[in-house]
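sry for the spam today, last one i promise. struct tokens for design, 446 residues
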């Protein structure tokens, strides 16, 4: 992935946010398998659009939340009878289940369990006013709202779905000191002073998260660790690139070292690498939840399932016609809903892919890893009780293109990983998300 982090304030890009498109293939795939025994065709798929669709077996169906629901006297014909008993049509059942369980469509099965997110804060029902209204409760909106309430401002935060339901619930949550479009490139494009500010902002962003975690008592697996940038192959070009970046990192005053890791599989068989001590990682949804609670504790108002439809200078209006009037409006929707094409024309949407593989505890060193490839691979661990999960991302494609037309990103990721981290066992997770790349690599245009 190129350009996943370009924070001047936070390690996640602030300026971008738009609803990701639902990847129909992965949504429908599990249903196809289970529906076929009933002889239904693809165009009859009754619950398309759900991330956790109902799936049929002879005696059970899965409801929209993944719970198994028994079908009385189940047999081939009985599923339809059951559906009519349960409310008539399949879509009515889907709706009933969603209403009952408050399911948010479009969530993913990620290592963070984004699929289990449920709204915790109310929907906005009446007009309100505040000093600032923030739209979007991903890492950007939550962080912004938190800083505002800390400064004594009255804040309303409006979220269309639920906090963390966007890209912040699909991220791999590396808190990087490395700038992933390369510091030497940044110096070339924007000059040394800007490159230095960017490096400083990455440091401060991680410090900010660490301080917030401590001050608010948030248990989100925040951890300081080494990050390693390594050459993508054995070529002289790849090594030259690494050395060039090492020199640029030193110029922008990052505390980096060139190290030799000895091709140990616990280190992903990496040899020479730039070490970035004091990088970080966390569990993004636990963090977002913790900060959301802190906002409310400090007097902020958060509303979920409150989709903003209209944005003006000093007010926003939801789909249900509720207006929030404010001195300022912050759009933290990943890509803004306003500004027409002024921002969108300067962003390239890409899709990035992630797999999570089971690894025996302790078999892989806890660190962050990035290679110099374009698009680059990004790797980290998340610890579970009995095993660890090696989380590997990359193989980005342009959004809107069908990856299967030219390569299989998940298979490629798996192959790449198994060649390096040889203790990797089965793949437990596969997910994808969208990243907006500013054309100048920095969103620095004026
Ligand atoms: C697979 C993947 C891996 C990544 N890895 C990393 C990484 O390791 N490190 C890193 O720094 N970055 C990483 N990124 C990038 C990072 O995740 C994003 O930059 C970041 O999450 C964006 O946060 P955000 O708050 O701007 O957007 P989002 O998290 O998408 O939040 C936007 C919110 O706005 C809401 N919204 C949208 N429209 C409306 C509306 N009309 N009304 C109300 N609410 C609305 C959405 O529902 C959503 O909750 C990764 C991204 C992906 C996809």
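last one done:
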């Amino acid at each position: 992935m190129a350009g996943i982090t370009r924070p001047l304030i936070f390690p996640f890009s602030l300026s971008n946010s738009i609803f990701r498109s639902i990847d129909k293939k992965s949504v429908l795939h599990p249903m196809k398998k289970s529906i076929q025994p009933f002889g239904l065709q693809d165009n009859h798929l009754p619950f398309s659009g759900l991330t956790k669709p109902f799936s049929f077996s002879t005696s059970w169906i899965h409801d929209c939340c993944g719970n198994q629901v028994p079908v009385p006297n189940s047999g081939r014909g009985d599923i339809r009878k059951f559906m009519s008993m349960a409310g008539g049509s399949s879509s009515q059942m889907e709706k009933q289940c969603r209403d009952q369980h408050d399911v948010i469509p479009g969530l993913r099965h990620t290592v963070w369990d984004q699929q289990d997110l449920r709204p915790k804060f109310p929907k906005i029902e009446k007009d309100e006013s505040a000093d600032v209204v923030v739209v979007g409760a991903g890492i950007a909106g939550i962080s912004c709202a938190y800083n505002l309430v800390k400064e004594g401002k009255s804040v309303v935060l409006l979220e269309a779905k639920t906090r963390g339901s966007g890209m912040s619930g699909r991220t791999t949550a590396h808190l990087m000191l490395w700038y992933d479009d390369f510091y030497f490139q940044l110096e070339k494009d924007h000059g040394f002073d800007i490159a230095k500010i960017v490096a400083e902002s990455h440091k401060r962003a991680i410090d900010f998260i660490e301080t917030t975690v401590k001050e608010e008592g948030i248990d989100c697996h925040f951890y300081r660790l080494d990050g390693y940038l390594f050459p993508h192959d054995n070529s002289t070009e790849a090594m030259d690139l690494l050395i060039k970046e090492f020199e640029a990192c030193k110029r922008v005053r990052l505390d980096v070292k060139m190290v030799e890791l000895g091709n140990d599989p616990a280190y992903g068989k990496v040899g020479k690498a730039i070490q970035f001590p004091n990088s970080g990682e966390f569990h993004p949804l636990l963090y977002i939840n913790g900060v959301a609670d802190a906002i409310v504790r400090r007097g902020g108002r958060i509303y979920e399932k409150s989709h903003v439809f209209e944005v003006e200078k000093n007010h926003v209006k939801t789909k249900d016609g509720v207006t929030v009037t404010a001195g300022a409006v912050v759009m933290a929707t990943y890509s803004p809903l306003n500004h027409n094409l002024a921002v969108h024309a300067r962003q390239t949407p890409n899709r990035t892919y992630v797999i999570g593989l089971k690894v025996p505890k302790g078999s892989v060193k806890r660190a962050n890893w990035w290679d110099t490839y374009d698009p680059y691979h990004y790797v980290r661990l998340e610890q579970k009780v009995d095993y660890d999960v090696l989380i590997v991302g990359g193989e980005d494609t342009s959004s809107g293109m069908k990856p299967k037309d030219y390569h299989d990103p998940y298979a490629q990721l798996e192959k790449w990983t198994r060649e390096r981290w040889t203790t990797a066992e089965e793949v437990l997770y596969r997910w994808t998300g969208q990243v907006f790349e500013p054309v100048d690599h920095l969103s620095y245009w004026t």
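Confidence is low (pLDDT under 50) at residues 3-90. ok im logging off now
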